């Protein structure tokens, strides 16, 4: 469920950025030497890179947590099996 919500938020972000970039591109064609517009373009690029980095970090975090859970569960199963074998030998 969380991934579905995150995917919807990502799609909304992409749609908003496409709309924003389209408008700025049109403005840039009309006034390519506008210094304020150049600042806006630079800010959009920086924001886009920052969000991409956050999304990449989140993806890596999810993969790491999944790996940790797998290793923990594997260790717990091995412990269960060893405990069971140990109990058999003690009897």
Quick synopsis:
Helix content is about 95%, strand content about 0%. It is mainly alpha-helical and about 90 residues long.
What report would you give on this structure?
Helix 1 (2-30) packs antiparallel against helix 2 (35-90). By secondary structure, the chain is mainly α. It has one domain. It starts with a helix and ends with a helix. The protein has two helices and no strands.
The residue-averaged pLDDT reads 93
Query: Number of domains in the coordinates?
Result: 1
Secondary structural class: mainly alpha
Sketch the major β-sheet.
Answer: none
| Spatial shape | rod-shaped
Radius of gyration: 25 Å
Order of helices and strands: HH
Outline the fold blueprint.
Blueprint: H1 2-30, H2 35-90
Labels describing this entry:
mainly alpha; single chain; 91 residues; 2 helices
């Amino acid at each position: 469920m969380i991934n579905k919500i995150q995917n919807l938020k990502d799609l909304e972000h992409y749609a908003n950025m496409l709309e924003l970039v389209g408008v700025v591109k049109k403005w840039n064609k009309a006034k390519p030497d506008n210094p304020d517009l150049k600042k806006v373009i630079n800010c959009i690029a920086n924001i886009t890179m920052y969000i991409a980095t956050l999304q990449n970090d989140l993806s890596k975090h999810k993969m790491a947590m999944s790996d940790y859970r797998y290793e923990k569960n594997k260790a717990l199963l091995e412990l269960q099996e060893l405990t069971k074998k140990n109990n058999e030998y003690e009897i």
